[in-house]
Amino acid sequence: MHSILFTLGPVTLYTYGAMMVVGFLATTWLAGRFAKTVAPDLQAINEEQVVDFTCWSLMGGIIGGRMLYVALQWPFFLQNPWEMLALWHGGLVWYGGFFGGLITGYWYIRSRGLRWLSVLDQFIPFGVLGHAIGRIGCFFNGCCYGKPTEAWCGVLFPGHTERVLPTQLFETLGLCLLFVLLRQLQTPALLRKPGAVFSGYLAGYGLLRFILEFTRGDQQIFFAGMTLQQWISLALILTGMVLIFLPPGQLKNKNRPQ
Description:
Layout: E1 4-8, E2 11-14, H1 15-37, H2 47-72, H3 74-79, H4 94-111, H5 116-141, H6 167-185, H7 188-191, H8 196-212, E3 221-223, E4 226-227, H9 228-245, H10 248-254
Antiparallel strand pairs: 1-2, 3-4
Helix pairs in contact: 1-2, 1-5, 2-4, 5-6, 5-8, 6-8, 8-9
């Protein structure tokens, strides 16, 4: 794989980090453009606020993703504490980043008196596309790989003795399809129902990740034959279903600025 994009003197640009930046820029740009097209009565967050929101969410996402990765690999980091800061080596757990980004994003949204679920409805499809781009970085970095395979799509990563499934690219494809689906859900009617689009993301990504975990070769069983990520995925699916069927009036009351 190509974990290093290029080296210029003492400066090394890692593909993993570069794809994270590309994903962030694509998410921010597209979400900002969409904000300008939303009708004033449906606009939950404007173009300028989108930039601040994505920055805060990215910061929380990196911290949360790294914290969960370190927690899951604690014996290694206990012996190599300085590696905790080596983000260019990879090592971000998506669900840790997801919840970390939600926390800092929630703080920003509430501090501006915006509606939490309405902002997520307007923003989340573009966050999904950024996630898809980030997974390409995982592929070039060789992390988040799949199980050994003899199929035509098998990839031989450095440090491996046999070909494995390119689960990273499978997830990229699934996320791109989810992006298209969520964009179709961003109709005026659904944008008037706080949580309608975001619930589709929770259920859709939860299902996608639950299935893909069966192809992962770098995960460990957590409980009852399933990985930690699969249990979190089930929780997301359940939460998404609850949001779908929760009466719209209750959602509006819960997200009214205080």
